[in-house]
Design goal:
mainly alpha
């Protein structure tokens, strides 16, 4: 059946709508934080255009405000957003069908866009799947840029105390984490609890300002060491579900 640009466009819009409302708010929070750090909406557009890393952008504002060295910024950004590399690996075959759009589709594969892409495995007959996935990434990117600009301009125009707005991303992560753990079985819950224990220990040892990087490194090391044990748990759960 011949593919329809109209049907493809409509499908992409419908799938990306949930991200629109989330990105307008979170993007605005980023824009407000950036303005409070002394950077206007032009910087909000530029950073959202070329970085587009969600939590990485919130981290970037904090690092810019504290005068962190470039190597520190690079390492922290790598650790915070390294999960995106695995997102891309899981969609290589599907995204390759997009031709010249392929690099951009990988670039725009954020947490939310990944969730949207995994929410469907098939598309209606008239929908061009590679183009639809490209448009979903494009729309989500535009939503984030618009949200960051709105936040930056709001911070400049509206005389409101925005203290605490930077906690919005933390709150989002907490909600997502709790929902994820509640919906998982024993093995996945164990992974989450290992992360919590490592974070708490590092918080006590290194303090609130310096615990994140050590916590990430130690969590990865512990999970790597515990991989055989976690694999056995998965096998036991799989056998139990089959029975």
């Amino acid at each position: 059946m011949k593919k329809s640009n109209k049907a493809t466009f409509r499908f992409a819009v419908e799938k990306s709508l949930p991200v629109l409302f989330g990105y307008l708010f979170l993007g605005s929070a980023f824009g407000i934080m950036l303005y409070e750090a002394g950077y206007n909406f032009i910087w909000a557009i530029f950073i959202s255009l070329v970085v587009y890393a969600g939590s990485g952008q919130f981290l970037l504002v904090s690092l810019l405000s504290s005068g962190a060295a470039i190597p520190t910024v690079a390492v922290m950004t790598l650790f915070i957003n390294s999960r995106h590399m695995f997102y891309g690996l899981s969609f290589i075959e599907k995204f390759k069908k997009g031709g010249w759009r392929y690099p951009f589709m990988i670039f725009t594969l954020t947490d939310e866009t990944y969730s949207v892409n995994t929410s469907f495995s098939t598309v209606p007959d008239k929908v061009d799947e590679p183009k639809a996935r490209y448009l979903i990434g494009l729309f989500d990117h535009i939503y984030w840029i618009i949200g960051s600009v709105i936040g930056s301009l709001a911070g400049q125009i509206i005389p409101i105390d925005f203290t605490g707005i930077d906690f919005s991303m933390t709150a989002l992560f907490i909600v997502i984490f709790i929902d994820l753990v509640r919906g998982q079985r024993g093995r996945e819950k164990s992974v989450g609890f290992i992360g919590i224990i490592c974070a708490v220990i590092c918080l006590i040892i290194f303090g609130a300002e310096n615990f994140l990087l050590p916590a990430l490194v130690i969590t990865v090391a512990v999970l790597s060491a515990a991989r055989p044990y976690l694999s056995r748990i998965k096998e036991v759960e799989g056998n139990a579900s089959d029975n």
